[in-house]
Specification:
Layout (H helix, E strand, L loop, with lengths): L6 H7 L11 E5 L9 H9 E3 L6 E9 L2 E10 L3 E6 L5 H13 L18 E8 L5 E15 L14 E7 L2 E6 L27
Antiparallel strand pairs: 1-6, 2-5, 3-4, 5-8, 6-7, 7-8, 7-9
């Protein structure tokens, strides 16, 4: 039988580990913040109900030459990161992000809170992918993160048997791979000679 139609070959070589599951994850948002309710930080890993592992994007630079277009590697782009958060009756998570946003630009006076100035509003976050046996498969750290949009919470009499959620759009400076788990990647965020990795678990190799 051809390999393409051999289900046993697929199980052995396609998803030998059973496949990574999108529901096996955790999000950690670091702190503390001098101007926020830090109690929400301890609960965030239980309240973030949807997130994503970051995308890797290097834009192409197109250069025309004699009627043809040649493409070269351009700059790296870090797209915004979105999370979905559960809202409990104490509004602790909602208040956390509202207060964070307000500290960057107060709703009425249109100024930044002194406690957040100049870069105190930027924090770190981590998203961790787990295996079905509880082992950590992969971990990404986001640096210089802050919320740019805290979405509305929809209210409706018809929305019975539901728990409120809201989305938060986060911008950040860069991300790095903190734990590559069992994979054999071993790539580094910096090249040899670039200096210290600011706490990365992947030191550069020669």
């Amino acid at each position: 039988m051809a390999t393409e139609f051999n289900i046993n070959a697929f199980k052995q070589r396609g998803l030998a580990g059973g496949g990574a599951r999108p529901s096996q994850f955790k999000v950690l948002i670091n702190g503390p913040f001098g101007f926020l309710n830090t109690g929400a930080l301890n609960d965030m890993e239980f309240l973030v109900t949807a997130a994503s592992l970051p995308s890797f994007i290097v834009e192409a630079v197109q250069v025309p030459y004699f009627g043809r277009t040649v493409k070269f590697s351009g700059d790296r782009v870090f797209q915004d990161w979105q999370i979905e958060v559960l809202n409990d009756v104490d509004f602790i998570a909602r208040d956390f992000f509202e207060s964070w946003s307000n500290a960057m630009n107060t709703l009425i006076s249109n100024r930044m809170n002194d406690a957040a100035w100049p870069t105190g509003y930027k924090q770190n976050a981590t998203v961790i992918q787990y295996g079905q046996n509880g082992s950590q498969l992969r971990s990404y750290k986001f640096s210089g993160m802050f919320p740019t949009q805290v979405d509305a919470i929809g209210l409706s009499w018809a929305a019975a048997n539901q728990i409120e959620t809201f989305n938060v759009n986060m911008s950040y400076d860069y991300f790095e791979l903190e734990d590559e788990g069992p994979s054999a990647d071993g790539y580094n965020a910096l090249l040899p000679g670039d200096g210290p990795l600011s706490g990365s678990n992947n030191p550069p190799t020669g």
